[in-house]
Amino acid sequence: MTGMEDQRTPPLREPQAGGEAVYTRPAGRSVPVQHDDLAAGYAALREAAALVDLSHRTVLRLSGKKAVELLNSVLTNQVPEGAHLGVYALLLNPKGRIQTDLRLLKGDEDVLIDVEPEGAAAAKELLGRYAPFYRVGVEDLSETDAPWGVLGLYGPRAGDLLDGPELAEHETAGRTVGAATVLVAGVSAPVPGYDLLGPADALSAAREHLAGRGAVSCAGFGAYETARIEAGIPRFGSDITPDNFPAEAGILERAVSFEKGCYPGQETVARMHYRGHPNRLLRRLIADGPSPEPGAPIVQNAKQVGRITSVAPLPVNGQTLALGYLSRNADTQDELRAGDAVLGFLP
Questions:
Q1: Which one, of 317, 133, 325, lies nearest residue 240 by Cα?
Q2: 109: three-class secondary structure by DSSP
Q3: Is the pLDDT of residue 241 over 60?
Q4: Could you say which of 134, 163, 180, 238 is the most buried, measured as most Cβ atoms within 10 Å of its Cβ?
Q5: Is the separation of the CB atoms in 61 and 139 below 8 Å?
Q6: What is the overall mean pLDDT for the chain?
Q7: What is the pLDDT of residues 92-111, one digit of tens each?
């Protein structure tokens, strides 16, 4: 099928003797994890509070009085006017294809951009292209002498451990956590909680403090990935690539404003939304049988009609969950397969 290029996310390999598995995180590092730890981490995300290391993400800082004006000229979403209100948005090319997604957060003085590593180069290039016209500086905080990162604190007890604050999604507040001062951002999906942003030393101190208060520190990225895939939240670099249009990935409601001013690719996005239908859609899937690999073709009647993009490292209620693109020409009432697995749909 046209446009079904390989879109992969690093898989969790099956546990070997002794119960150990290897999960390759988005940063490209292979770390040993225990399958039981994945289950405990996932349970903590759902029932308690869990810490998730997201230090693979890139944090950019935009400085200058016209930083928001610059962003409103290039992003698919409108930047809220409130002092500490942020937004999820996309950067597109002129043809409307996604170059990266990102999260915009506001500190006391500067604007921060939080982006997956696969989209960092595009974010820096595109924002840097327009920055001189607005007299805005773009700095990669992840490459400074005191590199910034992200630490997730998720689950129903996250607010208790952090002693609040109550924040809407993408809303921020400065916070002292133990002996560390960090920027705290509200998170709604895939699991409600908070993201803590700051230099590595500050996040390490915050992590130690929160673990001492009862946060589960073994959650790991695999448990988080399971929750993400279960919620149907696409990740840039696996479920979204520069080959995709926003309407295909099911993120229009979260990432696009149809009331804001012009931005690169706007005409294509609007035309597809109001007049057309995407050729494929990202779907939440259940795999019955041997777990398919990310990148596996989805086949129906001996024809490829899609491709698996992500597979949850941990079964949920005994089911293997996945995300994948499915052609609009596929018959959702007929059998779909990926490898030796029969596919169904999550409601």
A1: 325
A2: coil
A3: yes
A4: 238
A5: yes
A6: 90
A7: 999 999 999 999 999 988 99
Q: What mean pLDDT do residues 49-66 have?
A: 96
Question: Cα separations (Å) of 63 from 38, 103, 112?
Answer: 39, 16, 9
Sorting pLDDT into bands at 50, 70 and 90, what band is 37?
confident
For 257-281, the pLDDT digits (tens) are 999 989 999 999 999 999 878 999 9
List the alpha helices (DSSP H) in the chain.
35-47, 67-74, 117-134, 158-161, 200-212, 220-231, 252-255, 266-274
Beta-sheet pairing, 193-199 with 148-154: antiparallel
pLDDT at 116 over 50: yes
pLDDT of residue 164: 83
How far CA 240 is from CA of 6, 38, 75, 196, 253, in Å, comes to: 11, 25, 17, 25, 16
Distances (CA, A) of 180 to 90, 149, 161, 183, 184: 31, 14, 15, 10, 12
Q: Could you tell me the two tokens for 222? A: 């695999």
Q: Which residues contact 161 (CB under 8 A, 6 or more apart)?
A: 49, 153, 210, 213, 214, 215
The residues near 15 (Cβ < 8 Å, ≥ 6 apart) are: 21, 35
Which among 302, 286, 309 has a CA at the least distance from the CA of 233?
309
Structure tokens at 75: 């992003």
Tokens of 324: 């994948």
Give CA–CA dist 11/142, Å, rounded.
25
342: three-class secondary structure by DSSP: strand
Query: Residue 342: pLDDT band by 50, 70, 90 thresholds?
Result: very high
**Cα–Cα distance measured from residue 269 to residue 276, given in angstroms and rounded to the nearest whole number:** 10
Length of the chain: 347
CA dihedral 126, 127, 132, 136 (to 10 degrees): 180
Q: What is the pLDDT of residue 60?
A: 98
Q: Which residues of 143-172 are buried (b: 16+ CB within 10 A; e: fewer)?
A: eeeeebbbbbbbbebbbebbeeeebebbbb
Distance between start and end Cα atoms, the chain: 26
